[in-house]
Amino acid sequence: MKVGKLTISDLKELVFNNIQNNNDCVISSGEIGSDCAAIEVDEKVIYLSTDPITGTNSGLGKLAININCNDIATEGVSPVGIMLTILAPPHVKKNEIAEIMKEAQEEANKIGVTIIGGHTEITAAVNKTIISATSIGIGDKKDFKSKTKVVPGDRIIITKGVGIEGTGIIAFEKEEELLENFDSEIIENAKNLLDSTSVVKDGIIANKFAKGMHDVTEGGLLGAIWESSCFYGLGVNIYFNDIFIQDSIKTICKYFKIDPLRLISSGTMLIVTSEENSEPLISELKKNNIEAFDIGVFTDSEEKILIKGEKHTLIEPPESDELYKVV
């Protein structure tokens, strides 16, 4: 099997077809395009999400906090707690584990989330340190969003641009090679992208305008768009020229011959909003120093189309992330 997340077809066949909901209080669970599970408790909804960090040895604590808390933010609520599981190989040093936890706590302080527990283990089952986390958020039942509210004509907004996390990881993992070919400023700018991987602020600000949100992770922007299109049962038209790609991201992706639109991009929030709320949403985000871009529209077709000038390309289901072609 290919490295990375399971393909959509494998996910359905191997995972979703073998699980079921046994409790009425679970109002949202495993589904393509959904970032969180949701449990109803009286007039509250508890949101939960889980993700590992597997594609890098750099910034493990930072990424573990941000990537998991980002999923909670897609529901427009702040994460309140997170649990971390660290699996480290026998050759790990004590100070390396301490540094991961210090970094995780620093990032948790920025977001306002509490590390409430977890598990730490040394095991020969892994050859590098792996972190997996589960994040928790709490919202009001009345604010729980239904996917049925999204209709043709609704707009697709993204924050910050694309390729953020993947380029940051590549800059750390391939720093020596990149410095042989490019100015150090480009590499430093790319490494600093890992400081932009949180979308918690994006999600909280966007919530009053949003019909739904999706964190852009493995499979990149086009993967997230494909999943969202399936989740809402609608087609999409995406306009390439409206998608912002930072210069350092363009440079590094071109050098390694990878597609920034299919590169893991924690730090990018995909937001669905009505046509009339598109400009107010973008304006509100910009007031809070978050760049945002209207890149496309939902359609009543089943087709998912990327439009680049006169060329129209069908968006395919996400496969192995472009990151794994490099690291």
How would you sum up this structure, described in words?
By secondary structure, the protein is of the alpha+beta class. Helix content is 32%, strand content 26%. The chain has ten helices and 13 strands. It is globular, with a radius of gyration of 19 Å. The model has no long low-confidence stretch (mean pLDDT 94).
What's the quick description here?
This protein is an alpha+beta fold and 327 residues long. Helix content is 32%, strand content 26%. Strands 8-10-7-11-9-12-13 form a seven-stranded mixed sheet, with helices on both faces. The protein has a six-stranded mixed sheet with strand order 1-2-3-6-4-5, covered by helices on one side.
**What kind of sheet is the major sheet?**
7 strands, mixed
Q: Which ranges are low-confidence, i.e. pLDDT below 50, for 5 or more consecutive residues?
A: none
Mean pLDDT: 94
C-alpha end-to-end distance: 17 Å
- What proportion of the residues is helical, as a percent range? 25-40%
Strand order of the largest sheet: 8-10-7-11-9-12-13
Specify the overall morphology: globular
At the first level of CATH, the class of the largest domain is Alpha Beta
* The number of domains: 2
CATH superfamily of the largest domain: PurM-like C-terminal domain
Instruction: Indicate the CATH architecture of the largest domain.
Output: Alpha-Beta Complex
Order of helices and strands: HEEEHEHEEEHHHHEHEHEHEEE
Total count of helical runs of at least 4 residues: 10
SS-derived structural category = alpha+beta
